[in-house]
């Protein structure tokens, strides 16, 4: 998708490739498409690293744990990203037993997660002292028994089904344990891009955020019409209130805490 640029903060070179996360929490960042020249590349958090390696992105949201390893070549764009304090509302572990009873349990993990799956491993191992069982990707929506970690749209939809008596919010679990926000992703760009382009892109993110907050219901309704999810507009607007999009000092502390605690490898997927 290509749009024309119109900004008082310089210009992003026409045709720059920008990662597009189409999931519900990211709606506020894509409300400025009518005034920017982004060539949107649809992707999910788990697919960004391969796109970066292939040279297919110039600007993109990026899982915080990926940025830890790529930050020499990818610089953050201001304080933009996505974080949640105390309650995430869309990063949820569903099960028929309390989280403290999931010792060595098999868990289905949605394909999209990069950071949240490591949050889950840290919680199970270090907070609850549990063993990690065999985990698998590709959640079977028709399976109502296997515990599952779902994020974003899938988490919202599973809540609506009401099939699992125990729903652990990873934001709440982490806050009770560490007392810091979880920063699931940050906006980043290639470090070799000109500084004026980076500044212009940051200004466009700010403009998108401002447009969203001027009329959140309109933005959410337009997204639902485009992508066809079933949640109520009001519930999604309420969900967005759980998130910080401009990361403050407490989020920076959270990023550093995540760097110290989160595993690089996911034990549940080990062969």
TrEMBL record:
The keyword Iron does not apply. Keywords: Lyase, Menaquinone biosynthesis. Pathway: Quinol/quinone metabolism; menaquinone biosynthesis. Coiled coil: none annotated. GO terms for biological process: menaquinone biosynthetic process. InterPro entries: Menaquinone_biosynth, MqnA. It comes from the Bacteria. This is Chorismate dehydratase. One of its GO terms (molecular function) is lyase activity.
């Amino acid at each position: 998708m290509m749009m024309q640029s119109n900004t008082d903060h310089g210009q992003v070179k026409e045709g720059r490739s920008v990662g597009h996360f189409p999931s519900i929490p990211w709606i506020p960042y894509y409300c400025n498409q009518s005034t920017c020249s982004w060539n949107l590349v649809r992707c999910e958090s788990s697919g960004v690293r391969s796109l970066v390696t292939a040279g297919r992105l110039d600007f993109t949201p990026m899982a915080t744990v990926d940025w830890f390893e790529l930050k020499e070549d990818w610089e953050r764009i201001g304080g933009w990203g996505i974080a949640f304090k105390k309650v995430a509302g869309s990063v949820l572990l569903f099960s028929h037993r309390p989280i403290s009873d999931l010792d060595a349990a098999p868990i289905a993990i949605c394909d999209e997660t990069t950071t949240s799956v490591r949050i889950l491993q840290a919680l199970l191992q270090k907070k609850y002292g549990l063993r990690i069982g065999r985990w698998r990707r590709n959640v079977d929506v028709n399976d109502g028994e296997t515990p599952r970690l779902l994020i974003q749209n899938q988490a919202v939809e599973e809540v609506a089904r009401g099939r699992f008596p125990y729903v652990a919010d990873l934001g709440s679990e982490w806050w009770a344990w560490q007392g810091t926000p979880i920063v699931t992703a940050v906006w980043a760009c290639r470090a070799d891009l000109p500084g004026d382009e980076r500044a212009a892109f940051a200004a466009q993110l700010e403009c998108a955020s401002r447009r969203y907050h001027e009329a959140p219901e309109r933005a959410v309704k337009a997204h639902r019409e485009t992508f066809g999810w079933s949640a109520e507009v009001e519930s999604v607007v309420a969900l967005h209130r759980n998130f910080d999009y401009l990361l403050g000092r407490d989020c920076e502390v959270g990023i550093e805490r995540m760097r110290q605690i989160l595993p690089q490898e996911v034990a549940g997927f080990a062969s």
